[in-house]
Amino acid sequence: MNRQDTIVAGADIVKSVAEALQYISYYHPPDYIRYLSAAYEREESPAAKNAMAQILANSRMAAFGRRPICQDTGLVVVFAKVGMSVRIDSPYSLADLINEGVRRAYLDPDNPLRASVVIDPLSTRRNTQDNTPAVVHVDLIPGNELTFIVAAKGGGSENKARFTQLNPSASVSDWVVDTVSTLGSGWCPPGLIAVGVGGSAEKAMLMAKEVLNEPIDMFDLLSRGPSGPGEELRIELYQRINALGIGAQGLGGLTTVVDVKVVTFPTHVASKPIALIPQCAANRHIKFSLDGSGPAVLTPPDMSDWPEIDVDRTLLIGARRVNLNTLTRVETAKWRAGEILLLSGKMLTGRDAAHKRMADLMEAGMPLPVDLKGRVIYYVGPVPAVRDEIVGPAGPTTSTRMDVFTRKVLQATGLYAMVGKAERGPAAIDAIVEHRTPYMIAVGGAAYLISKSIKSARVLAFEDLGMEAIHEFEVQDMPVTVAVDVDGNSIHRDGPAEWRHRIATR
Ligand SMILES: O=C(O)C[C@H](O)C(=O)O
Q: Which reaction does it catalyse (predicted)?
């Protein structure tokens, strides 16, 4: 056989990976935008429709501004399919080349991305500062090309990945639907759910992670009909998950998933491993191949797929304007769950690491570096600013992770309100009621849009924590929704319950 080797330069891999990561930081895949736009058009829940409007408007702004869709610019996951006739011309390993691409992308001075990876997950959790290392999966396949799938996976949706070993006779569909119903909204729906069935524990997880990068094609599948059990399951899950009524951002509505992917592999006679991996609205991935002729050429998407939505007009109708600088407990007690507020004035920021430090200081009987009394705290870790920006994209992080600190913080500080994303757990809601401290949400996945309402930013404490430091933001008309009011009413409990009922009784 006349076998001709393809030589791919290591430098082309580095450049292609760096450019791919920049590209996906600001361009959503057009198929996701088409499906989300269709979901937006048909959505009947005003709260969910409003959230989708913000996600779509944010996506368009990010594409034109070439700035990240989401403040969580993700953990880089790469699937490399290496043709067996390819030789990589480099003294470095493939992982090293990919990591160099990651480093360049995340430190790009034109569009710096947030460094979100910590080393020593068991101990120091020190940020690596350049988002390396990537998680790299390599397959050797026949052929003379090198194909990469490059994805940037947000932590909120990754945290909701689940795995089980079912009894071989048990229903995959029931387990998936029951599990999705327990995930809450920290995974930022509307998105996708991938299900890997079979193989071994790690094979099921890997298959699910990879299939998330396949084109979204549920409408085609629905119109042509299923061709086998895998496609039958996809349709069943798509319908059953949407019937849960979770909706955009867990606010209750018609669309929770725009697609469901199912992938299978032979397994042991005694086993039925099932992996479930959600993909958030910041659905970022791209596929390209290198054939030795140079780095990948990535063409910008056709922006006519992006709807032009006037979010301001939608938001301003019926919203309550709030001055954070003169806030009182009498005022915050009037806010009702579901109400839209436009916040102006000064707020503090603090997320996981800052909360841990504050809790440690309280434990040790030491004073906090910032007085939280009468203040509002926003759970956020922004992207670094560039050019004339005050701050980079700065959307909310999942509040549930702060629940373990909530009672302690409210008890010790006299904080007036919290802003984050997704539901609060029962203990946090009890603390909210006890301390009369409401909780609001901003839209996860609308980070660039939200950053435009931030008019000044400075670090007040824990500077060494980088994006996790305590900042003070001055905001103007920052849109939020009251998610838990001082009486413990929760939109994440009531919204999905109402829409589940409405869908079931149609
Ligand atoms: O780290 C973040 O900013 C957010 C994270 O993606 C989350 O969804 O909680």
A: (S)-malate = fumarate + H2O
Q: Residue 332 belongs to what domain range?
A: 311-496
User: Which atom in ligand 1 lies closest to the alpha carbon of residue 380?
Assistant: 3
* Residue 131 belongs to some domain of the structure: no
CATH code, 356: 3.20.130.10
Name all residues whose Cβ lies below 6 A of ligand 1: 71-72, 116, 154-156, 186, 381, 397-398, 444
pLDDT, tens only, 127-167: 999 999 999 999 999 999 999 999 999 999 999 999 999 99
Tally the domains of the chain: 1
Rounded to whole angstroms, the Cα distance separating 359 from 419 reads 18
Instruction: Provide the pLDDT confidence category of residue 314 given band limits of 50, 70 and 90.
Output: low
Q: How confident is the model at residue 3 (pLDDT cuts 50, 70, 90)?
A: low
Is-contact 17 103, C-beta < 8 A? no
Which among 55, 70, 72 is the best mutation to test ligand 1's pocket, defined by most ligand atoms within 8 Å of the CB? 72
Q: Which of 84, 68, 85 is closest to 27 using CA atoms?
A: 68
Q: Give residue for tokens 């149609």.
A: 506
The ipTM (two decimal places) reads 0.97
Domain contains 66: no
Ligand 1 atom with least separation from CA of 154:
6
Q: Which atom of ligand 1 is nearest to the CA of 280?
A: 8
**Is the predicted pLDDT of residue 1 greater than 60, yes or no?**
no
Which residues have CB under 8 Å from 100's CB, separation 6+? Answer: 14, 17, 18, 92
Q: How remote is the CA of residue 64 from the centroid of ligand 1, in Å? A: 23
> Is 90 among the domain residues?
no
| Residue 92 in domain | no
